[in-house]
Amino acid sequence: MDEITRLARPEILEMAASGPGPAVQPERDVLTRLDANENPYPPFPGTVDGLPHNRYPEPQPGHLLDRFAECFGTPRERLLITRGVDEAMDLLVRAFCAAGRDSILICPPVFGRHAVSARVQSVAIHEVPLRGDAGFELDLDGILDVHRSDPGLKVVFLCTPNDPTGNLARRADVLALCSELLGKALVVADQTYVEYSGDPPLSRDIDAHPNLVVLRTLSKEYSLAGEQVGVVVAHPEVVGIVGRIVIPRPLTQSTIATVTAAVTPAGIEYAHANIRRLLKERRRVEDTLTAMPGTRVHPSDANFLLVGVARPQELTQRMRRAGIRILDCSAVPGAGDSVRISIGTYRQNDAMLAVFEAHTAFGGPTATSV
To answer: Which Gene3D superfamilies does the entry mention (predicted)?
Structure first.
């Protein structure tokens, strides 16, 4: 598709395609593997999980791609497995942005490695802040102004629900941006937290918007942050381009086994049950914090809350002394005096709320507006 290939770096297009595809021969049919210089003997018996750790895993495990396709409601040829969302961002920058010529755009306040990837690639970074006076909505006019002034803009990174603000971007805004930038730039939506929003994932709109790229992960929904599994959901042309430079085997044997169990029907129901519990806790924590003096709790579509509060650094230290970690966001441009609080279990949340209440009861100035 010309609208996609014209955006990619020419030297990447010249590389041999190596994206996901069916294995030449299913592993179960292989009797003897003498093609990859592997050690034929299993590791020391202290490794008791029974996995073939002496063998390289599949580059893009076919059974996982099939399960992800079902979980995400998208065809398998639109999927590429990466070592987490951060690597996916890095691959997109390297595949589509030429050093010293092209640029990306981000919308702070936002966390993510896109800026680091751009700097390593010598790619310029534009910042168009979210509209803090309008619930952290996208500034579409500001983004399009940058596009008109810089024809080298190749990738617009969005986070929806956004971290640390927690809000979901309006779907109509994201799709309008895709329409305006078709053939000119990719619109990459990090949807790490989408399962907490109740909103259908943006990947459903890729047919109509081939320059839309959606990033998914199993870290939050499936409780697999320690496994670092990311999935690029995109038009097959994008998958093919990024697949040329992805590491050959992004997942270990252990990770493949863990993820395989997590995306079974029983694993999916377990994950969804946990999400329901966390959403119930999010409402309780939000209501409790809102009732405390001097706080401003921002509406959230994620598994965390951004809370405006006076003396956020002091509050963070109070929490640490109580054995609780929250994130001070006061140094994040656009976040004001605030902290980000992940939603935990009932007991964990109660412990956090007790410290928070003691902090607000102490009095003092109110939080700086964000």
So the answer is: Aspartate Aminotransferase, domain 1, Type I PLP-dependent aspartate aminotransferase-like (Major domain)
- Report how far residue 324's alpha carbon sits from residue 290's, in angstroms, rounded to the nearest whole number: 20
pLDDT, one tens digit per residue, over 236-251 is: 999 999 999 999 999 9
**CB of 151 closer than 8 Å to CB of 123:** no
| Same domain? 16 vs 38 | yes
Instruction: Give me the domain span that covers residue 259.
Output: 2-263
Instruction: Tell me the CATH number at 58.
Output: 3.40.640.10
pTM: predicted TM-score of the whole model, two decimal places: 0.91
Range with lowest mean pLDDT among 96-110, 129-143, 232-246, 351-365: 351-365
The answer to whether residues 256 and 330 belong to one domain is: no
C-alpha of 296 from chain center:
26
Query: Distance between CA atoms of 339 and 316, rounded to whole angstroms?
Result: 8
Domain total for the chain? 2
Alpha carbons 3 and 362: distance in angstroms, whole number: 58
In this structure, is residue 367 part of a structural domain? no
Residue 124: what are its φ and ψ, rounded to 5°?
Answer: -70, 155
Q: Which tens digits make up the pLDDT trace of 1-57? A: 788 998 999 888 888 776 444 444 555 566 666 656 666 667 666 655 788 888 899
The strand order across the sheet containing 103-106 reads: 79-82, 230-233, 212-217, 186-190, 153-159, 103-106, 124-127
